[in-house]
UniProtKB/TrEMBL annotation:
This is TetR family transcriptional regulator. Residues 28-47 bind DNA. Residues 5-65 form the HTH tetR-type domain. It comes from the Bacteria. Keywords: DNA-binding, Transcription, Transcription regulation. Gene3D superfamilies: Homeodomain-like, Tetracycline Repressor, domain 2. It comes from Ensifer canadensis.
Amino acid sequence: MENENRKSALILDSALPVFARYGFQKTTMADIARATGISRASLYLAFNSKEELFRAGSARAHERTMSEVEAALGRTGNVVDRIAAAISAFQEGLIAPFSKSDNAKELFDTNLKLAKDITIAARSKLLDLLANVLAAAQAQGEIDLKALEVSPADLAALIAAAMDGIKHSFSADGRSDDALRLLMRVLSVALKPEEKNADGTTG
């Protein structure tokens, strides 16, 4: 079983740059077998089809990425910095591998077609994780959501929507990191609690 898992991991790792180079439609199982250094027969013993292989790759990428996101949010330190690290992990694991490919749109569309349930589950988990860490920071007085009149869940959804915008608007020209840093600066300012004077008033 361990050897089979290693073989599957090798195939999926080898398939990723092939899909990025040729796109899903033009990639063949022979291309993937060649990139992996195995025969087509051996490849078909591991995966019955290109579709099954792509879905397995998506599942693996989402599982690994969400573990990294959860770890980033679970660290100690400033909540906005932890959210930034989590978003970076999400983008690096699920967006970056295809974002600079000429076939990016086709590959993202293929993922939604073949692994929509996996993608939706990961996004739902991301929203829950963000909402939980924001709620905890609010309870500890690190941030002030009341001033914005927003719930942790709604702010988490807004952050995720901003991530989508960054993916579509900035990834192609390499400015996604700059856009992410700007988003985090905006959050830092918007969520900063008002300082209280000695008499308990704010200002």
